[in-house]
């Protein structure tokens, strides 16, 4: 994520002269967002000739892999993709601003910067870069993926690429998990028009197939669903075996060793905070669950300290209460050990769209290994769409069916798999709140929804209104902080309006009715799909 991809694919027919260098290529530049928000722009360019002008590429390039030869099919290029750096209203909150920046960027400002970056992608330079790693052959009927991190959406593009490469190479060497092959990576290619700096990039194998959709697990034949779940369990169980002495992110060994080292934690949440707040999140090697959880919870807290657009008092109260409640109980949920090694390598975003399948739901590849982390064992969780914690994914499908099928496959394998036994315990969502905590720490924007559905009902018996009223009567400081946040929101909204960057959808103040409707929807989903795994 947080990168964009272009697809440069040779358009050919049976009567085309495949050797004609003047034939045209179709280059598509598109952000890979959620299915509802895919923007695509297509352009045509002349086919790159047999010779590549090396002067168009800035600086020395990494040496192509030795396995390239004259028979390697020429490629076409996909250039990265990204998930939105901010998710509008609830993600853009964060750290204390530096003195030279009173307010954070608005979500639309960041989106506009990202779109400008995408529109400036130089498709000729991308094709030239791809050809360089294919013995300087022009693009033909083979597709590669060239990922270019979106600079306005990523704090440190080179660190992100290095970590992704180190993680993928380690997974390829130590597991049988299907992932794309890495052809090359670097940071010294000029791939953006009218830019004086070079860009980081990652060239990957293109995996045929399509992204899994949650509806596939409803509509497909039972045998295909069971086969898919068995393959997913195998992926997770192999990851579960990759153990490390400390938590953090994998990076190349500075001494040149074959295996990576565990370095400071790079995460989606910390990156979004840094980008929106224009500040730096300081991280370090994490040697205990206590340290890891504290580090991630601080990022969550900072995420909700930045001013938000049109923040209502009701929303501010819900957020303040949820953060305080979670802070008091999170170590109880995920453990508070001081030496919990080994730590486990976890894919940070195993959403359906990052699982490539064929027509029979066989897994062809797991993609998007950027932001993968080594985490404490209790934060090595099942994909949230299998447990009900990804409320967006399950909003319009009978999640009971997904969870039932998945648990049945786990149960069938538990005699021979310790991982399956542990996963079955995780599925007891009525008691296990580590899943909820992990989801909130990874995706701060889901705080209220996940807290309301999974955590609040386990901690309190009285109504929410009664609990919140009593809470703010007892905690005058918290009540004052709510008033301060609402005031800051008014100032921030006014600033954006005067600056001319406040769009109509951001100019609508959240009302009590909006919040009640939102929470009612979460409760309705909960009641409709509430499920406990079958007991043995």
UniProtKB/TrEMBL annotation:
Composition bias, Polar residues: 1-10
| Transmembrane annotation, as ranges | none
Region: Disordered, residue numbers? 1-45
Which Pfam family is one of this chain's hits? APH
Q: Which InterPro entries match?
A: AGP_Transferase, Aminoglycoside_PTrfase, Kinase-like_dom_sf
The UniProt record lists the Aminoglycoside phosphotransferase domain at 142-372
Name it: Aminoglycoside phosphotransferase domain-containing protein
Write down the species: Metarhizium rileyi (strain RCEF 4871)
């Amino acid at each position: 994520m947080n990168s964009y991809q272009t697809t440069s694919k040779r358009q050919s027919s049976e009567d085309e002269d495949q050797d004609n260098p003047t034939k045209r290529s179709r280059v598509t530049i598109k952000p890979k967002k959620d299915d509802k928000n895919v923007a695509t722009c297509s352009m045509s360019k002349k086919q790159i000739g047999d010779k590549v002008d090396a002067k168009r590429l800035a600086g020395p390039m990494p040496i192509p892999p030795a396995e390239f030869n004259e028979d390697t099919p020429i490629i076409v290029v996909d250039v990265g993709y990204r998930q939105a750096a901010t998710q509008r209203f609830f993600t853009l909150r964060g750290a204390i601003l530096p003195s030279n920046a009173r307010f954070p960027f608005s979500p639309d400002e960041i989106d506009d910067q990202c779109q400008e970056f995408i529109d400036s992608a130089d498709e000729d330079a991308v094709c030239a870069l791809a050809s360089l790693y294919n013995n300087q052959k022009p693009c033909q009927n083979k597709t590669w993926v060239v990922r270019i991190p979106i600079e306005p959406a990523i704090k440190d593009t080179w660190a992100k690429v290095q970590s992704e490469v180190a993680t993928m190479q380690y997974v390829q060497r130590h597991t049988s998990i299907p992932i794309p092959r890495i052809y090359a990576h670097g940071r010294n290619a000029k791939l953006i028009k009218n830019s004086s700096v070079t860009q980081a990039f990652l060239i990957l194998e293109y995996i045929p197939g399509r992204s899994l959709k949650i509806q596939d697990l409803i509509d497909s034949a039972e045998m295909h669903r069971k086969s898919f779940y068995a393959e997913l369990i195998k992926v997770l169980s192999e990851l579960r075996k990759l153990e490390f002495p400390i938590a953090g992110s994998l990076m190349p060994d500075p001494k040149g060793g074959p295996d990576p080292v565990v370095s400071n934690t790079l995460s989606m949440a910390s990156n979004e905070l840094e980008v929106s707040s224009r500040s730096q999140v300081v991280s370090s090697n994490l040697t205990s669950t206590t340290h890891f959880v504290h580090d991630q919870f601080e990022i969550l807290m900072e995420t909700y300290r930045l001013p938000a657009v049109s923040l209502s008092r009701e929303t501010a109260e819900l957020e303040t209460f949820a953060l305080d409640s979670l802070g008091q109980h999170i170590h109880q949920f995920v453990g508070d050990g001081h030496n919990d090694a080994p730590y486990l390598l976890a894919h940070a975003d195993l959403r359906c769209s990052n699982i490539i399948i064929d027509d029979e739901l066989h897994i062809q590849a797991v993609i998007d290994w950027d932001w993968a982390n080594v985490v404490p064992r209790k934060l090595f969780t099942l994909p949230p769409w299998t447990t009900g914690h990804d409320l967006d994914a399950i909003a319009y499908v009978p999640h009971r069916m997904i969870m039932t099928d998945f648990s049945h496959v786990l149960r069938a394998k538990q005699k021979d798999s310790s991982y399956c036994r542990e996963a079955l315990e995780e599925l007891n969502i009525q008691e296990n709140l580590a899943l909820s905590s992990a989801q909130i720490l990874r995706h701060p924007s889901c705080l209220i929804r996940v807290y309301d559905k999974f955590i609040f009902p386990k901690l309190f018996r009285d109504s929410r209104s009664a609990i919140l009223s009593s809470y703010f009567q007892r905690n005058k400081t918290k009540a004052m902080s709510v008033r301060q946040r609402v005031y800051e929101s008014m100032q921030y909204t006014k600033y954006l309006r005067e600056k001319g960057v406040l769009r109509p959808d951001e100019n609508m103040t959240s009302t009590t009715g909006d919040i009640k409707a939102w929470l009612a929807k979460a409760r309705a989903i909960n009641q409709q799909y509430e499920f406990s795994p079958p007991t043995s």
